Amino acid sequence: MGQLTRITAFSDDPAGGNPAGVWVGDSRPEPDEMLRIAAEVGYSETAFVSPSIGPWRTVQYFSPLAEVPFCGHATIGLVHVLAAEEGEGTYLLETRAGSVPVEVTREDGRMVATLTSVEPSHVDADPTLVETVLAHLGWTADELDPAFPPAVAYAGAHHLVLAAATRERLAEVSYDFDALRDTMRAADLTTVALVWRESDAVWHARNPFPVGGVVEDPATGAAAAALGGLLRDGGHLEAPADLVVRQGEDMGRPSLLMVHVPEEGGIRVGGTAVLLP
């Protein structure tokens, strides 16, 4: 048996951030049961972790429609739940994507959890994939920022990163749900990461997630890590560097993701969380 908690990550306001389910038990349910629970919870992801205590835990992440290899916001939410019982420190998680340490500290009277992603990577996006996704979104190629060519970036899950040329373009997101879902499944994409650079240190993001049965994520830690890796390894910033990713504002669920890009290795993504009723 396990205990299910609802929590929202990357915000300290219950009306903000990205809600996640967190299931903690001595052993995880069978995959079909985890999928059923995730669908019943109805959030973009639910994290299932076991054992309930110990220096390391194995974690699986399920959306309402499918298992995903890694989820940043559910990781942040999960570790806040663990830290409420066990306190500050470093929690070691084994995920399908690899080992992910998460450090919990207290800052200004609130708990902040910071994960370190697996080694990031990226490749240039296939032009046909980009053309197809843009058509699903109703965007055109000339509405993209030429300084950031489309790429598929990875830091535990794959994301097609498309950089909008203007904030106005990013503010208007609607798409053919079934068509984009099918295209993403064929390309093994977890989300489409739509981003806009306000400055070198501030980015805005939106993340359609139809493969998980969710129109849009209000905060996507895995995509923020992938973006940090892409910016570093693609030569778009000089590491070490700190970034803020603002997400969820166009959905009415503002979220703040703090990203640290080291000179090498995994990308650090941190934030707060708050329990939901």
Describe this structure in words.
This protein has 277 residues and is of the alpha+beta class. The protein is 23% helix and 40% strand. The protein is built from 6 helices and 18 strands. It has an 18-stranded mixed sheet that branches. β13 and β14 (214-217) form a beta hairpin. The longest helix has 15 residues, at 72-86. It is globular and about 50 Å long. The mean pLDDT is 97.
| Element-level helix/strand string | EEHEEEHEEEEHEEHHEEEHEEEE
Helicity level: 10-25%
Please state the overall shape, judged from the principal axes of the Cα atoms: globular
Number of helices: 6
Strand content: 35-45%
Instruction: Report on the biggest sheet.
Output: 18 strands, mixed
Alpha-beta content class: alpha+beta
Low-confidence segments: none
Distance between the termini: 21 Å
Computed Rg = 17 Å
**Average pLDDT across residues?**
97
What is the number of strand segments? 18
Key attributes of the depicted protein:
single chain, 277 residues, alpha+beta, 18-stranded mixed beta sheet, 6 helices, 40% strand, globular
Secondary structure blueprint with pairings:
Layout: E1 2-9, E2 18-25, H1 31-41, E3 45-50, E4 56-62, E5 67-68, H2 72-86, E6 89-95, E7 98-107, E8 110-116, E9 121-124, H3 127-137, E10 151-154, E11 158-163, H4 167-171, H5 177-186, E12 191-199, E13 202-209, E14 214-217, H6 221-233, E15 241-247, E16 255-261, E17 268-271, E18 273-275
Parallel strand pairs: 2-3, 4-6, 11-12, 13-15
Antiparallel strand pairs: 1-2, 1-18, 3-4, 4-5, 6-7, 7-8, 8-17, 9-10, 10-11, 12-13, 13-14, 15-16, 16-17
